[in-house]
Amino acid sequence: xxxxxxxxxxxxxxxxxxxxxxxxxxxxxxxxxxxxxxxxxxxxxxxxxxxxxxxxxxxxxxxxxxxxxxxxxxxxxxxxxxxxxxxxxxxxxxxxxxxxxxxxxxxxxxxxxxxxxxxxxxxxxxxxxxxxxxxxxxxxxxxxxxxxxxxxxxxxxxxxxxxxxxx
Length: 167
Description:
By secondary structure, this protein is α+β, with helices and mostly antiparallel strands.
């Protein structure tokens, strides 16, 4: 099912509101916001669910023993999970980056660590390099801003990653 820009923006606002509420309800804890990177107007399909399940499994395994609360939503605008952990922000961000960088589908995971002010902690804030493009070696944001690759090229690359993972 295709979603509209208004639906996407509304889901981002709801996600931000949920993050603020969870941060307020869990002082001294770290909040993780997990979403699936699925470019284009279709955010929920069989492939995005494979990625979502893999991401959640990886996070639950790596953060075992530190998870205080978890909330999962499977929406037409995409899969999202909120995980409250007792692990510190920097350590959690390092571990999140490790998952994104090392898991076979990690390039399709977006694991944000949300600071107490509600802003996500960047990779560069902990000395990590920016994420790379799925297709080339450029910084991902560069390619997204410049529309370096077509939607078809990106989707083909995503499909190949997922197909290799499930085989």
